[in-house]
Amino acid sequence: MDIQHIHSGSKGAFIVKVDGERLAEMTYTMPAENKMIIDHTEVDDQLRGKNVGQQLVHAAVEYAREKNIKIIPLCPFANAVLKKKTEWHDVLN
């Protein structure tokens, strides 16, 4: 699954496109250089059951590790995934 990262100013998203159509996204804001607030995750029904949401969260975790950023998961889905995956707790704020 090809996950693209879009970042502009203090906002961004990790997205999945299929045939040019955006079918999954996880959006965030950056209130500071070292803080990412994940505020929304959405996966189209076409991709349900393929762990796409978890893959989006994983992409955010890898980005956060690379940039030394802490994640604040306000999105209920991202929060649940991050709490379950203890190996990702290093990026939680």
How would you portray this structure in words?
The structure is a single chain. By secondary structure, this protein is α+β, with helices and mostly antiparallel strands. The protein has one domain (4-88): Aminopeptidase, CATH 3.40.630. The protein contains two helices and five strands, in the order ββββαβα. A five-stranded mixed β-sheet has the order 1-2-3-4-5. A hairpin with a 2-residue loop joins β1 and β2. The termini are far apart. The model has no long low-confidence stretch (mean pLDDT 96).
In short:
The chain has 93 residues and is an alpha+beta fold. It has two helices and five strands, in the order E-E-E-E-H-E-H. The chain has a five-stranded mixed β-sheet.
Poorly predicted runs are none
- CATH-defined fold name: Aminopeptidase
Widest sheet, order of strands: 1-2-3-4-5
Shape: globular
User: What oligomeric state do the depicted chains represent?
Assistant: single chain
Number of helices: 2
Helical proportion?
Answer: 25-40%
- The counted number of beta strands is 5
**Overall mean pLDDT score?**
96
Helix-strand makeup class: alpha+beta
Tell me what portion of residues adopts beta-strand conformation.
35-45%
- Calculate Rg over CA atoms: 12 Å
CATH class value: Alpha Beta
**Element-by-element helix/strand order:** EEEEHEH
Largest sheet, if any? 5 strands, mixed
What's the CATH architecture name? 3-Layer(aba) Sandwich
EC number: 2.3.1.-
InterPro entries: Acyl_CoA_acyltransferase, Gcn5-rel_NAT, GNAT_dom, GNAT_YJDJ
Pfam family, one: Acetyltransf_CG
Protein name: GNAT family N-acetyltransferase
